[in-house]
Amino acid sequence: MPDVALAVTGLTVNYGGVLAVDDVSFDAERGMVLGFVGPNGAGKTTMFDAITGFARARGRVVLEGHDVSDLAPEARSRAGLGRSFQDARLFPSLTVFETLAMAFERHVRAEGVVSTAIGAPWVRRSERRVSERVEELISLMGLGAFRDKFVSEISTGSRRIVDLAVILAHDPSVLLLDEPSSGIAQRETEALGPMLLKIREQTGATMLVIEHDMPLIRAISDEIVALDTGSVLTRGKPDEVLEDPRLVSAYLGTDHQIVDRSGARRAQPPAKKVAAKKGRQRPLQAKRVAKEA
Fold it and tell me: Which residues lie across from 208 on neighbouring strands?
């Protein structure tokens, strides 16, 4: 499968007697954005945990043709799997530039404490390259206005972008994003979609995105996978999946027709209130007629 960046086969996760992920299989082509939707408890985050090695699972995870199923999370990260979490945990006392520089630490050549302490030429060259790459990443992510601000001073939405930049510093070939719009303002959510597409265009990374914001996931996804009770419900183009009655039922507990009928009923005032209102109008009308006479 030369064009497949990530292939997941028979992924299964059990927590005691609870089957959290049930025989999930899918593949993602290079450079595509594959969205994942489903109600709370459908197993989406647990599936990401299993793919990245944070949850014990059965099944196979093949990244760029290499089986990483038995690797630890850090080894999968080095192999090219990047992962964001719902709560971005960054050091609040560091500036945005310092945070990104730390993320590039793996690219710094420092052969011992003495070399670093005396500022050996190879150490200085390595640090200059890191600074250049940090500036490139700041430009790519539109973080120039926050470059020298402390992480604690910027908004939740901006911290999300910094967290995403930290992950990109590790040069992932496949990027897993768990509800990137969670906890941020509507204006920031609207700006997030173009940002993710820009990252895909600039880096060529394959993206797997869990999201409850339907307009966002519809706008950025090439295809969407719907999950329910740990299993794959359906997969297809965004419009096909998001309008599937089974997904609507999983989210709302009913179907479109019942929702529409319920809405129509709620739009009409109760009969008793209408009658009472008419009853109150009669004395007023009688007084008005008497006054005119």
Answer: 34, 176
